[in-house]
Amino acid sequence: MSGVPSYVRLANEIAAQFAHRSPADAAVAIANHVKTTWDPRMKRALIAYAESGATDLSPAAALAARHLA
Amino acid sequence: MSLLKEPDFGTPARPGDATTELTIDGVAVKVPPGTSVMRAAKEAGIDVPKLCATDNLEAFGSCRLCVVEIDGVKGTPASCTTPVRDGMNVRTQNERLGKLRRGVMELYISDHPLDCLTCSANGDCELQDMAGVTGLREVRYGSGVDAGANHMDAPTDSSNPYFDFEASKCIACSRCVRACDEVQGTLALTIEGRGFDSKVAAGAGVSFFESDCVSCGACVQACPTATLQEKSVVELGMPTRTVLTTCAYCGVGCSFKAELRGDELVRMVPYKNGGANEGHSCVKGRFALGYASHPDRVLEPMVRDTIADEWRTVSWDEAISFTARRLREIQAAHGQGSIGAITSSRTTNEEVYTVQKMVRAVFGNNNVDTCARVCHSPTGYGLKQTFGESAGTQDFKSVEDADVILVIGANPTDGHPVFASRMKQRLRQGAQLIVADPRRIDLVRSPHIEARHHLQLAPGTNVAIINAFAHVVVTEGLVDREFVESRCEDFDAWESFIAQPEHSPEAVADITGVPASEIRAAARLYATGGNAAIYYGLGVTEHSQGSTMVMGMANLAMATGNIGRRGVGVNPLRGQNNVQGSCDMGSFPHELPGYRHVSNDDVRDIYEKLWGTPILNEPGLRIPNMFDAAIDGSFKALFVQGEDIAQSDPNTQHVFAALGALELLVVQDLFVNETAKFAHVLLPGTSFLEKDGTFTNAERRINRVRPIMAPRTGKQEWEIICEIAQAMGYPMHYDSAAQIMDEIAMTTPTFAGVSFGKLDELGSIQWPCNVEHPEGTPIMHSDKFTRGKGRFMETVYVPTSERSTRKFPLILTTGRILSQYNVGAQTRRTANVAWHPEDMLEIHPHDAEVRGVSDGDMVALSSRVGRTELRAKISDRMPVGVCYTTFHHPVSGANVVTTDSSDWATNCPEYKVTAVQVDLIVATSVVAVGNR
Ligand code: SF4
Ligand code: SF4
Ligand code: SF4
Ligand code: FES
User: Which residue of B has its CA nearest to A32?
Assistant: First the structure.
């Protein structure tokens, strides 16, 4: 858990809750949740992290970050 | 004299319509069937003399002072134990009755010290009153010490820190015993012996302090004489005036009469008409007040340039201009979003409202959060998603109609004692109890109460259990189809989700550690046992799936139709006195007051117009985000209102690093708390005895907090906020707290009908209070849910990542104890420390044995983030592999070991699950002290 920035850990934790849904559905749900509850600087950091191609982000969370961009 | 003495009707009210008509002393009166003649007389304005009766206890009929004559009835029956009948004709006064009563009084007085003039109860003694009422003039058997065999030498028990038991004055009326049984439900007292030898005892041969007594004070309040008397009354004398106010400890929100002598507070007496407590209290609210006048209180503002400097005491003007200047400088250097504030659930709605307004209107961002983040934020989220409103569904009184009570992750007898007493009354009447908790809390087995099921689940598996409950309901045909079809949505998808075999009790038995048959039986009981009510606490919310669990409970309640009437519902037992209120007041970074999202243009428009400034439409930082942002350098200044985040928030090292990285930390508090060690400005706060405002309790009840003295600091806390705002260039001014409430009502639909005037008139109001519900709403969602249809949510069980490992093989969970309150800043500064001088680590005998740990040994408790030391207490309340501690004392610092694991939806910390190791430090074998 340590080592990754907290917003990555948080995004992955949200993603885990929607793991039973299809990746596309899950990404929409994650993006919605992030949009309604995250401070803009954290959103920006998440988007930048996803764009950097780092692999610590779960696939659904990475897809969600793209929706947010 | 303005001492408020509530009328005493002698026996409890009976439910139902007033249909029984009788005549008492020629006065016709109508009362509900089952009412006593004594109570009917009082309703008719006639006082019957009495000693052993009082209206919060069932009649006992021992003193025979209340005798009356009834046409057609032989002898002179006791009016307190005689129920009314239609057409009865009763006489309460005549010569014969007067003589009988004087005879009774003669016997009492002959065995009572005659030191009325110097007695602490002089002026507040029912024995004295009755001697007057009955016209007693002589005592034929001798009196006081001149009488024959008597109890004048009986010793006084002063062992309780707050009250004395002066046995020589006892008239053996048994009111104390019955108060302990019926009101408090602890059953600590008995009457020992018979006839002349009968006397009150707190257990066999032990003092009050050593007994099971929890020091609630109900017996003291019930005692008609000076036998059980507050030490403060003995010391200071009888109070002479009353101010009605609200307890500032827990979310029960008990109403109190603050009784003063001049300007000195003598005692707190729970108020009979208090909606939350109806005349009862716990040891904290009644007695633990010494902190308000403790010498540690800071009364003047202090500032310093760096935290290495000494504090400088300064004037208010200097403190305020320093704060305002530094905040603006930091914003100029690091951006509008580089500052923020944390509101407190200990302060009033009006104080919280001004802080969030300062953040939104003056700081120009949404970086405001509240300490509810670390306790009940998942409640807000989960209930909003499912029911549409971030609040509990019932009033406390509703529990009187519950047939099945499901308590999950709460320890009401310690955490919410006055509500626990109500719940226990209902359980003693026969309601069934299910407890889901890793720890065997007191409620599982206590006098006359035994849980039908104690589901001793592994910490972190709540969602698996609640899903299994729902699985049983769905697959065994126990769904309330009519309710679901007419009131809810998204049921079909949820039904097929929850019916999947992975949610069955059999599938989760290994995960939860609870046998499948036990889960099935408990679920059937919940679904079929009549009105079923869920009560829950931080054992639900403080988990990585706290929000999921709240939604899971809401699903279960909807599926079984247990919502929208008395006796049912989903009820959070809120921790702090004003958690509900601080959340209602717009303390969350994504919500304006009334839980309306900041992205909602219409809502922002209301405030933008009124406040004359734009409001950001994106959420701000939550508390843990603030800490992260402080460490990464984008967040530089924090205003903390009445909260000790350095002690109360998880992963202490991380919090310390964050606070240490701030350029400005402003702390508003009563004391130089742990957080203040990192602060640059300390603004002294007011205790609840000085505050003017409102608190909102766990049942959405808005209660008035009235000052009994002017602020000892010279300023109300909301005034300080206004002055900082003004110094930052924004005109913010209120004449009074009432005016702040008017603004809240004007802008928040759920508060539309609330005002101080109406609160004074009605006593309290449960929001929503508006045109449809002008006097408030005790039970929510009765015809339709706040969001229209109740929404079923899929609740997937995701195991927490915080798991036991070879290095950290035990799971630590945390909780509170009755006598102490949270970080203990207040209760540690009162005589309550007598009950809980230190935090202890409860560890199972098996886990202790393999580590060579004995009761009382000092042990090291370590997790992947930290290590602390505390004393071990061997206890089989937890299953093997789980240990438990409280977190009231900074020296043990339980949060040194808790991690930054948190609820996925709200970031509420996962205090309830930490993988730890326990190692013996030294085998001191000191017998554990005090931890009861
Ligand atoms: S203080 Fe409360 S618990 Fe103690 S004996 Fe009195 S009624 Fe019982
Ligand atoms: S202690 Fe007070 S309440 Fe209890 S029996 Fe004696 S006089 Fe009555
Ligand atoms: S139950 Fe809570 S509100 Fe009531 S007296 Fe105790 S601490 Fe105060
Ligand atoms: S008051 Fe009725 S018997 Fe004592």
Answer: B905
* CATH code, B827: 2.40.40.20
Min distance B545 CA to chain A CA atoms (Å)? 9
**Both tokens of residue B280?**
């009862």
Domain that holds residue B668: 302-375+578-702+715-762
Q: Are B498 and B492 in contact (CB under 8 A)?
A: no
Return the sign of the alpha-carbon dihedral for residues B233, B235, B239, B242. Answer: negative
What distance in Å separates the CA atoms of residue B545 and residue B903, rounded to the nearest whole number?
A: 5
Q: Which of B590, B625, B798 sits opposite A42 (nearest CB)?
A: B625
pLDDT at site B907: 78
Last residue of a domain, one of B557, B572, B587: B572
d(CA A39, CA B586): 16
pTM of the model: 0.90
Residue A2, pLDDT > 60, answer: no
Same domain (yes/no): B625, B723: yes
User: What pLDDT shows up at residue B379?
Assistant: 86
What number is the average pLDDT over the span A10-14? 90
Are residues B410 and B559 located together in one domain of the fold?
Answer: yes
Q: Are B558 and B488 in contact (CB under 8 A)?
A: yes
Do B452 and B585 sit in the same domain of this protein? Answer: no
In a domain, A1, yes or no: no
| Partner residue opposite B904 with nearest CB, options A17, A36, A41 | A17
Per run of 10 residues, the mean pLDDT along chain B (length 932 residues) is 80 95 96 97 96 95 94 94 96 93 87 81 85 78 59 82 91 93 92 80 84 92 93 89 91 92 89 93 88 82 94 96 96 96 92 96 94 77 89 92 94 90 93 93 88 91 94 96 94 94 95 95 96 91 87 96 95 85 91 93 95 95 93 95 81 88 94 90 92 93 93 92 96 95 95 95 93 92 92 89 85 74 67 77 92 92 87 91 79 69 78 86 46 29
pLDDT of residue B147: 55
Judge if B561 and B428 occupy the same domain: yes
The CATH number given to whatever domain includes residue B307 is: 3.40.50.740
| CB atoms B801 and A1 under 8 Å | yes
- Boundary residue ending a domain (B98, B129, B147): B147
Q: Give B-chain residues touching A6 at CB under 8 angstroms.
A: 624-625, 628, 900
pLDDT on residue B654: 85
Return the closest-CA partner of residue B159 out of B220, B221, B215, B224.
B215
- Strand pairing class (B637-641; B664-669): parallel
Count of structural domains within chain A:
1
Interacting residues of B181 by C-beta distance below 8 A, sequence separation 6+: B187, B189
Contact B629 A13 (CB under 8 A): no
Any chain B CB within 8 A of the CB of A49?
no
Q: Which of B62, B90, B134, B173 to mutate to test the pocket of ligand 4 (most atoms within 8 A of CB)?
A: B62
Distance from CA of A11 to the nearest CA of B (A): 8
> A44: domain range?
6-68
CATH at residue B198: 3.30.70.20
**Cβ atoms < 10 Å from Cβ of B516:** 17
Residues of chain A positioned with their CB less than 8 A from the CB of B599: 36
* Positive/negative CA dihedral, B119, B122, B128, B130: negative
pLDDT computed for residue B925 by the predictor: 40
Question: Burial level of B14, CB count in 10 A (0-12/13-18/19+)?
Answer: middle
pLDDT of residue B671: 87
Radius of gyration of chain B (CA): 29
State how many domains chain B has.
5
pLDDT in tens, B802-829: 878 888 989 888 877 666 655 566 777 7
Interface contact B904-A14, CB threshold 8 A: yes
Q: Are residues B848 and B885 in the same domain?
A: yes
Distance from the Cα of B620 to chain A's closest Cα (Å) equals 5
Report CB contact under 8 Å: A38, B619: yes
Is A33 inside a domain boundary?
yes
* Residue B710 falls inside a structural domain: no
